[in-house]
Amino acid sequence: MPLRKKPFRFSIWQRRSLKGLIHLFALGYVAWLFFAGINDQLGPDPVNTLINETGTWAIHFLLLTLTLSPLAKWLPSPEPMQFRRMIGVYTFVYAFAHLLTYIVFELQLDMALVASEIVSRPYIIVGMAALLLLFALTATSFKRIQRNMGRKWQKLHNSIYLILPLALLHFSWSQKTFWQEPVWYWMIGLILMSPRMKQWYVTYQKKSQKKSRDENAAT
Ligand code: HEM
To answer: For the whole prediction, is pTM greater than 0.85?
Structure first.
């Protein structure tokens, strides 16, 4: 049920300020993390802190991206959708920083070690699948590419609904538990996905009803 009758709108100035603040936080935090890590200010295990912080914030941005469409319907307002590309791109930026930290600082660019880690830790393969999909969405997030791709664009961008369980599975697996911290993220993910799952179910039911009506008519 929408919160108000009249759609909520930001002024240009308000929208630009909010975007500026998000850029400042997202770029500032990742820059600070690397600066502090290099200057030995991230505690006893800076590499682990870097991996954990970049991974956790990639999940935060991912969940935030998925919040925007229900929020737009609930307010109602077209405004949240103006932030979707930006926050989606920061999901990729943090996930990529996470991978870089792991390969450059943890594995010291030793490619034989990278290969053996991939083979011995399946959660890395799950993380890689999520990252590759995130890359595909980021690379095709430009307006011109969206126009050129037509309906294929929406199909590709629906893979955000696959990225979420992959990223959460990677998270739980890396922690060796579904409970404790990961379970909260699964719960938030489930809440965000539930209106979409309901919608898919309704569409599926309508399609199968139409199919059986068509089959009955043909016999
Ligand atoms: C090539 C892709 C990836 C690699 C190689 C990778 C690697 C890792 C490693 C080594 C850990 C640490 C496990 C430990 O503590 O022993 C980790 C944890 C984690 N990763 Fe990834 N990851 C990848 C992709 C992703 C993506 C795409 C996301 C999210 C969108 C993500 C989110 C996380 C989170 C949340 C954690 C747990 C952080 C914590 O302990 O608080 N990872 N990953």
So the answer is: yes
